[in-house]
Amino acid sequence: MILRTFSLSKFFDGLKALDRVNIEVEEGKITLVIGPNGSGKTTLINVITGFYKADEGKVEYKGEDITNKPPHELYRRGIVRTFQIPKPLKKLTVLENLLIARENPGEGIVGALTKAYIPKEKESVTKAFEILEFLGIEHLWDEEAQNLSGGQLRLVEIGRALMSDADLFVMDEPLAGVAPKLSHDILGRMRELCEMGKTFLIVEHRLDIVLEYVDKVYVMASGRIIAEGKGKEVIEKPEVVEVYLGA
């Protein structure tokens, strides 16, 4: 397993937002977390990725304890996070938005003076165009981000994540506001990336689209995992139906 949580708990003003959550994310797979609003899904991925501090429990990544490590350190270890609302730099082009996702030796004094950054920049541009082509948006490379559709911004966000060479992608509602056809395209790209060894942990509401692409599903309610298993088998469980009907 590339990622595990052990009895992970989080409190907000005495309210238990996460209640001893245990999940396992297998390498090269897509793991989905679902549940009604307020069930604790986003809190879970915020704790895993260091945006919130866990109050109890542990997070392991590749066998190492990463509990409460800050996001920038997790990024360097190979974990990247995308958000429910894409956050591009709107005045920059699509290509520029991808390029800023990579560290550049020219940002340091020595690198700038010795021009050591030039080969790295050329390598980054080549990689960015390869990613844009893979995502099917290479024709938008010089378009400002503010001119893109919601679905295109999602692809740019995924592209920025891929520029980091991460192994684990944690994504909060990657299909929100995206048309069905483009949603299938995005999930298809994720499956291709899994075949290349990448791993995804995603939160998503659009079960009619996402279930056919994922390998494992966890269902949350009131901060707890109430069910887990394969795709449609999970959402047909009585306890899951009850939670969704109650919501």
Description:
- This protein is α/β, with parallel strands linked by helices and 247 residues long.
- 38% of the residues lie in helices and 23% in strands.
- The protein has helices at residues 41-48, 71-77, 94-99, 109-114, 117-135, 150-163, 180-195, 207-210, 231-235, 238-246, and strands at residues 3-12, 15-21, 24-25, 30-34, 56-61, 64-65, 79-82, 168-172, 199-203, 216-221, 224-229.
- The strands form two sheets. It has a six-stranded mixed β-sheet with strand order 7-8-9-4-10-11, with helices on both faces. Strands 1, 2, 3, 5 and 6 form a five-stranded antiparallel β-sheet that branches.
- α7 links the parallel β8 (168-172) and β9.
- α5 (117-135) crosses α6.
- The longest helix is centred in the middle third of the chain and has 19 residues, at 117-135.
- It is globular.
Keywords:
alpha/beta, Rossmann fold, 5-stranded antiparallel sheet, 2 domains, 38% helix, 23% strand
- What's the story with the biggest beta sheet? 6 strands, mixed
- The share of residues in helices is 25-40%
Q: What would the CATH topology of the largest domain be?
A: Rossmann fold
Global geometry = globular
- The CATH homologous superfamily of the largest domain corresponds to P-loop containing nucleotide triphosphate hydrolases
> How much strand content do the residues show?
15-25%
CATH class category label of the largest domain: Alpha Beta
Order of strands in the sheet with most strands: 7-8-9-4-10-11
CATH architecture label name of the largest domain: 3-Layer(aba) Sandwich
Report the C-alpha radius of gyration, rounded: 19 Å
The first-to-last residue Cα distance is 32 Å
Succession of helices and strands? EEEEHEEHEHHHHEHEHEEHH
Count of individual beta strands: 11
Total count of domains: 2
Task: Please work out how many helical segments DSSP would assign.
Answer: 10
Low-confidence stretches: none
